[in-house]
Amino acid sequence: MQDQTLGQLVRECRLSRGMSQSDVAGSKYTRSFISQLENDQIRPSAASLGYIADRLRVPLSHLSQAYLNTEVPGRFVLELAEELVERGEYQQAEELLPCLLHGDNPVDTRVKAHLAMAEIKTLRGEYPAARELVQAARWLAVEDRDSLNAIRCYVKLGAIAQVQHQDCAAVEIFREALFRYEAGKEEADLLLLAVLVRLACSLFRIGSIEESEGLYRRAQGLLPDGDLEARARVYSGLARCARATCRYTEAVESFDVALVLYRSLGRTKSMVKILSAKGETHFLSGSMAEAEAAFTEGFRIAAEEGWADWQFSFLTLRAEIFLASKELDEAGQQLEAAFEILGEGRRPPALWMARAYLARSHLSSLRGSRDEALEGLARALEVIQSINAWGIEAHLLAAVGVIREGKGDLTGALQRYREALERRGIDPSGPPRWQDLGARQFWPEFTPDLGA
């Protein structure tokens, strides 16, 4: 019913599921708290309402309308909208936010509403609209002389650049945010933590591994006891830095910490990302059994959740393990299953598609099918060129030369590689490092020494 109170709706949901008030309270609240809620004696926070929705196994949006049936201050509406965004219920959040963008709401509420709306636009790929919202929020913060909210706007602009893989631009934005934070002698550790982690992430992506790790270490010292997600992100970043510098044991240990944290938070999508990275770390260190175990667990979770893109990626990763050990029939079965997903009209991320085509090319090469190997490389190149990943393209062009002539066009490949470095703001005068551009050395026999 439209005029149903929150307490009435919670009681109705609880009874329909045969749950007691203690069942709904769980380990976080008391039966008395739920009783007061059902009698409309208290108004829970948005986070509390989210927890209760999880206990009742209903979407947060199912309870939100009843929550808003009574007059609710703007800050409560904002908190509810932010919680909805966090849970992926974007449409419901978008319906709440417009009333907070203007009018008599405090400037702080208006700024944060703009940023929440920008987050929705970013997640939907509407980047120009997201930037406009952030710029509007920044002007509000500047006019109100609110330096902390202005810094939050810089962080959001940098995050939008990161999503678009514009990491050089993101680095400059995050450096500006960090400068403003330190120049203003602010004391908001959580905001500083966000800036450091974001900046460290973009620095890693452009190959500044040492500086990235230094920032993650600095962020580690700011971690609050209760913020498990921030802790997981920091340990995940430290793990990737360790892996990039071949400290595989240290990397696996940090990935394990992040995995435990994400599991305790119930973040299954983050768990599969960590399992993928952990498995690849084992692969690079030669621990094939451990790599296969990580990929198998990741595939199981992805299959349970119905995530076709991650199923595709784990099948490709398992194929790479079998290729490394020359178990060609098993590799072929994994790739056949992966490409069946493509046949169902689904499209995983471009880099994973390219990686699957490369694995199929490698399999054909090992079986002596030169034409099929070249066809696989051609398909991989087509995908890579569509996303302007020039460094990986140079790597593949060299590999094509290896198959065709027994040697790659090293001069041409090196030139494309240096062009890629310049595009990403990396000094091209140093020795070539494929990992700076994410161009993993898929097959040692097809990896020319461009430093020669």
TL;DR?
With 452 residues, the protein is an all-alpha fold.
Give structural attributes.
disordered C terminus, mainly alpha, 452 residues, 74% helix
Give an overview of the whole structure.
This protein has about 450 residues and is mainly α. The protein is built from 24 helices and no strands. It is globular.
Summed up, the helix count is: 24
* Helix and strand element order: HHHHHHHHHHHHHHHHHHHHHHHH
DSSP strand (E) fraction? under 5%
- Approximate helicity band: over 70%
Distance between the termini: 74 Å
List the helices and strands and how they pair.
Blueprint: H1 6-16, H2 21-25, H3 31-38, H4 46-56, H5 60-68, H6 74-86, H7 90-96, H8 98-101, H9 107-123, H10 127-143, H11 147-163, H12 167-183, H13 189-205, H14 209-220, H15 228-244, H16 248-265, H17 268-285, H18 288-305, H19 308-324, H20 328-343, H21 350-366, H22 370-386, H23 390-405, H24 410-423
